[in-house]
Design a protein that fits this description.
- This protein has about 400 residues and is mainly beta.
- The protein has a single domain, classed as YVTN repeat-like/Quinoprotein amine dehydrogenase (Methylamine Dehydrogenase, Chain H, 7 Propeller).
- It is built from one helix and 28 strands.
- The strands form seven sheets. A four-stranded antiparallel sheet has the order 1-28-27-26, with no helix packed on it. Strands 2-3-4-5 form a four-stranded antiparallel sheet, with no helix packed on it.
């Protein structure tokens, strides 16, 4: 009984506690079982496979093509933005007493327009003195630049140059006057002649000969080193205007008719003190429309180009400077010999038939440089003072140049 009371008391106390404090009861379920049977399981595999191939051995294929092909590779660059390249070349200074051409980085030939020159005198390194209207103008035809200008009182005509004194002699048209220009200093002086001048020949040491316009016979004025006419001689063998040439000492004078078919060509001794003229040789037959006259610097070779030729066929005789009755042979230019000039060492000879620029050996008379053909209208041909360039003056107003050899 006592145990029942105690149990009731405990139940009453639990009820009171529940009534005062709500309790959340979470049931706990615990179960275990054993399953038996058969299960089928299926798995899906997805995989990417990349094979690796390692070749072994080697083989070289050599094609055989017939005919053998030719391939041309062309590269065309494109620049954006476009650009302009300007090259500036400075020519060597003009030197009137030069003896050598010093040219680097230039081509082998070219042309340069120079107006309307009647005559040219080349110096070195591309410099050329040209007779233009009322002046002599220096041009560098290789570097295509202007140089010094020498104003004159009248249009210039024939010119001759003495490199030993850097003296340029210039006949003034329609005046009894010749201009004397010192190329080194630029000083210009004038010499009064005994008549209007026709043609010139320059000796050394500032001396020169001037043949006058002929009325009956040819008169030649001799200008000595003082720059005045010291004496005159008459060449009665020639009765038209005469081309002349002289040796460097001025002791031998040559003369031949200008633009005349027939007539004498003469060689004379000249005394520079007494001005006496003596006959050495006189030849009839060289004159067939004379164009000009040039003597080699060593005095051994005289060239007298004539439009009709004075050697075999259309050629220029290589006359002996010591006696023009004899010759060493001839330079064959073809129709029609027009102009000629010697190299400074007297070893080569430049000429033209009016169309082609030709260079020959003096010793063999054979061509010593390929001919520049088809130029046309060539009037004057010359070597430079240095011997490394040859020139051809074309009318109107273009100078052709090429290196030599």
């Amino acid at each position: 009984m006592r145990r029942i009371k105690i149990y009731l008391i405990l139940m009453l106390m639990g009820f009171l506690a529940f009534a005062c404090n709500p309790v959340v009861i979470t049931p706990k379920i615990s179960q275990s079982f054993v399953a038996t049977g058969t299960a089928t399981i299926t798995r899906v595999f997805t995989q990417t496979y990349t094979p690796t191939w390692t070749p072994t051995g080697s083989y070289t294929y050599t094609p055989t093509l017939s005919p053998t092909p030719t391939f041309t590779f062309t590269l065309t660059p494109t620049f954006t933005p476009a650009f302009t390249f300007t090259a500036t070349f400075t020519p060597p200074p003009m030197d009137g007493g030069c003896t050598q051409d010093n040219l680097t980085g230039i081509g082998s030939s070219g042309t340069y327009g120079v107006g309307y020159p009647t005559s040219i005198v080349p110096l070195c390194n591309g410099w050329v003195l040209a007779a233009e209207s009322n002046r002599v103008q220096a041009f560098n035809v290789v570097y295509q630049t202007l140089g010094a200008s020498y104003p004159l009182s009248s249009p210039p005509g024939d010119m001759a140059y003495d490199p030993s004194t850097q003296t340029l002699w210039v006949i003034l048209a329609n005046l009894p006057t010749v201009a004397k220009i010192n190329v080194g200093t630029g000083v210009i002086s004038y010499v009064t002649l005994t008549g209007d001048g026709a043609h010139l020949a320059a000796a050394a040491n500032g001396c020169a000969f001037v043949s006058l316009q002929a009325s009956t016979y040819v008169v030649v004025n001799y200008i000595n080193g003082t720059g005045s006419v010291a004496g005159s001689v008459t060449i009665s063998d020639i009765f038209v205007n005469a081309f002349i040439a002289c040796n460097s000492a001025g002791t031998t004078l040559y003369a031949g008719p200008q633009a005349l078919v027939g007539g004498y060509t003469g060689e004379y001794s000249f005394n520079t003190t007494t001005f006496a003229l003596g006959l050495i040789a006189l030849v009839d037959g060289y004159s067939q429309n004379g164009q000009e006259m040039e003597l080699s610097s060593d005095g051994n070779h005289l060239a007298y180009p004539n439009g009709g030729g004075n050697g075999p066929g259309y050629s220029i005789y290589d006359l002996m400077g010591s006696n023009i009755n004899s010759n060493y042979g001839a330079w064959v230019t073809g129709p029609y010999p027009t102009s000629a000039g010697f190299s400074p060492d007297s070893a080569n000879f430049v000429a033209t038939n009016g169309t082609d620029l030709q260079v020959f050996s003096v010793a063999t008379h054979a061509v010593s440089k390929p001919t520049w053909t088809g130029v046309g209208n060539l009037k004057v041909t010359r070597f430079s003072l240095g011997g490394g360039l040859v020139y051809g003056l074309q009318t109107p107003g273009t100078i052709f140049w090429e290196t030599f050899p």
